[in-house]
Amino acid sequence: MTYRPADVALAVKRLQYRHHRALNQALAPLGLSLVQWDTLRHLHRHPDASLHDLAVLTFQTDQSFGPLATRMAARGLIERVPGPGRAVRHRLTEEGARLRAAGQEAADKVVESSFSALSPDQLDQLGELLDAALGPDPSGLGR
Questions:
Q1: C-alpha to C-alpha distance for 77 and 117, rounded to whole angstroms
Q2: Would you call 26 helix, strand, or coil by DSSP?
Q3: What's the half-sphere exposure (Cβ side, CA atoms, 13 Å) at 87?
Q4: Residue 41: what are its φ and ψ, rounded to 5°?
Q5: Mutual orientation of helices 34-45 and 94-114 as an angle, nearest 10°?
Q6: What is the pTM of this model?
Q7: Which among 91, 67, 66, 94 has a CA at the least distance from the CA of 81?
Q8: Could you read off the pLDDT of 78-105 as tens digits, one per residue?
Q9: Any residues with CB less than 8 A from the CB of 23 and at least 6 apart, and which?
Q10: ∠ CA 113-117-131 to the nearest 5 degrees?
Q11: For residue 87, is it left (φ>0), alpha (ψ between -120 and 50) or beta?
């Protein structure tokens, strides 16, 4: 079968939508939404990230991420600490780290199930093809 770019793009979008629904369902017992867990995951990988960096990493705008960070801090999942100048940095709390780890287990189950029809070689190939299509990360923050 010959795939057109539009067909591949739609398949990627469908898979993303399936993952979002399944991840939100898997994270709900932890009291987390996907965007909240994604924030915890990125703070684990990028301690002391700025609000802007976290917004970029979680596909949010700075304006929408600000209230999210405030709510997460109020729940005791993250803390906001002074950075250089007027900058505010963010860190995981113990509770945030605990929920991040529990959420990672739930997320791993979702994506492992989603890709279970692929052999390890096919999964590696898919990852390499997606990396090639994405190209270098312009944010410099990593994936």
A1: 35
A2: helix
A3: 11
A4: -60, -45
A5: 110
A6: 0.86
A7: 91
A8: 999 988 888 889 999 999 999 999 999 9
A9: 34, 37, 106, 107, 110
A10: 85
A11: beta
